[in-house]
Amino acid sequence: MSIFKLQARGIENVGFLAQDLYNDKRDRKNVVHGHDANMLYEHFEMEQQKNPSFRFTFERDDNDRITHYFWADATSRKSYQYFGDVVVFDTTYYTNKYSLIFAPILGVNHHRQTTFLGYAFLSDEKIDSFVWLFHEWLKAMPGGPSKMIITDQDPAMTRAITSALPNTFHRYCIWHIVSKFSEKLDALSYKEHYDELKNCIWNSEIPGEFDARWATIVRNSKLSSNKWLQDMYEIRDRWREEIEGVRIREISVDKSSNRVSCSCKIFEFDQIPCRHLLAYLFRMQIRELPTEYILQRWTKTAKMGRLMDD
To answer: What ranges make up the beta strands (E) of the chain?
Structure first.
């Protein structure tokens, strides 16, 4: 009312009372009461008419009330083709009015930005509800199931994934692991250097003095199980040594394939080379990042491939 009062230059010039606003709001609610589910359905139908790539499906109970609703727009379906290898499923959000669970399916693009890969409303967190959602989601998404799905430690969700996504590797969210075991993970400190590591992948080159700034490299023949097939090196984190004490990582080099791996396992987990691996490559006078350490989903050209669209 204060806005109307200001615009009309006085409450006597507004022409209605605050109670009139409340009555109007009440009348509008009465008009849509009992029809909100139909309105949502009509909205999704309109979206599908605008773009045939829009997908949605729902289920009702015996009282004609919505129990499950899933939808995915064209952007989500396209993003899945590029970045659907690893997804995050979360059910920690609830709607205020209907007490439904909002369950987004999320991914990460090549800029480390969150991208939506599907949405759902669920009436409960039972196994059958999750199984229904995963089946409908796979129907809507082009291509096969994801390689990995990350969730919280919900037993029903775990059983549903085993049933609906048997070939998808299931991991728990990192914050649940940290809170449970209270461990200091390399991934936390690694995040500080992500931008520089990302530039290495985008430009396919290793920045100068990488080992001098970040690590000391020592060849360790004692660690080698077979000197003809494998070389081993120790990497000491110099930049963390004063803060957390000595931390040593082991670099393993397979001579037959020239494949390099690190004991921190960041590349296996994140598909981005760790600073230890880059320090080793720089020490070996390798200035261009080998293609086997460049995953397409992290490159500038991640979305330049041609996709089939409805």
So the answer is: 55-60, 66-72, 86-89, 93-94, 101-102, 105-108, 114-116, 119-122, 148-151, 169-172, 215-219, 230-237, 248-254, 259-262
Radius of gyration of the chain (CA): 27
Q: What is the pLDDT of residue 185?
A: 41
Of the candidates 104, 158, 100, the one whose C-alpha atom is nearest the C-alpha of residue 127 is: 158
Neighbours of 293 (CB within 10 A): 18
| DSSP collapsed to 3 states, 118-150 | CEEEECCCCHHHHHHHHHHHHHHCCCCCCCEEE
Specify the pairing of strand 86-89 against strand 66-72.
unpaired
Q: Are 280 and 233 in contact (CB under 8 A)?
A: yes
Structure tokens at 43: 């909205």
Q: Which residues contact 10 (CB under 8 A, 6 or more apart)?
A: none
Residue 106: what pLDDT?
93
Tokens of 103: 């369950």
Per-residue tokens: 110: 């090549």
Helix (H) or strand (E) holding 14: none
Q: What confidence score (pLDDT) does residue 175 get? A: 57
What pLDDT score does 140 carry?
93
Parts of the chain with a pLDDT under 70: 1-35, 95-96, 174-217, 219-230, 236-246, 305-310
How far is it, in rounded angstroms, from Cα 130 to Cα 122?
A: 8
d(CA 117, CA 89): 10
Task: State the Cα angle at 84 between 137 and 310, rounded to 5°.
Answer: 60
Check residue 183 and give its pLDDT.
43
Angle of CA points 163, 169, 172, to nearest 5° = 95
- The pair of structure tokens assigned to 111 is 């800029």
